[in-house]
Write a structure and sequence with these properties.
The chain has about 260 residues and is mainly α. It is built from eleven helices and two strands. A hairpin with a 2-residue loop joins strand 1 (about 125) and strand 2 (about 130-135). The radius of gyration is 30 Å and the shape is elongated.
Length: about 260
Amino acid sequence: MTGESRFRIPRLLQATLTVAFFYAAFVVLFDVLLAQPIPASLLTMYMFFIVAGVFMVFTFTEESAREMVAPIKALVEDPSRKLVRNVVFAIVPLAAGTFAYAQMLPRVEAPVELRAIHPAPPATVKLYGKRYDLLSLENPFRKVQTEDPEAFRELVAEGAEVYIRNCHYCHGDKLDGKGPYAAGLNPVPLNFQDIGTIAQLQESFLFWRIATGGPGLPEEGAPWISSMPVWQDFLSEAEIWKVILFLYDYTGHRPRSWEQEG
């Protein structure tokens, strides 16, 4: 037996060390070099592909596959390794159970990515081929509420029709964020009944958010998370403003105004 074969690292150990190397490399890359912990879901995805790739490389031929499983086969079949086999069979399930238990424990630390529900809007925005100043933009139908209450009720009813046709699937027929599609979205749609949502916002903010949807969120302060489509591609300006009237009317909230801020 030559010195090379005597001190050759078993193929199974080589594969294990290779996987461990990539795991350590990812952790060092994110935690040390980038100074940001790698999300657990991303690390799991990376390691899945690493393990699959290493397994394919180390079992590429029949000979290498036999060499790969030789230590496991010997552990299971060799009578002289009964003690080691019993220890391994006890430790592996215990380790798996401990890992599963640790993953299921509730955690109190803040998530790595904090989600801003109401991101700061831009000062101006281009919608429907026009440039709007969101600081001075007002709902053109809001004045009808005092000038002609009967006409205002008709506008609210028209907004309700638009909402039911397009919005209730996610935000719910009670505007509580519990529509039939809500369970399939992450994060779930906003609950407009909550005092912390539209009651804290100007109507111009809602117009911007509805018209531009998730893709219209600003890059500053990302990551943003929103499943809302770009409604300016499907609704007219008037329809969006009427929907906003309906949102406030149904929930009983009053939109914030710059006069109130002053």
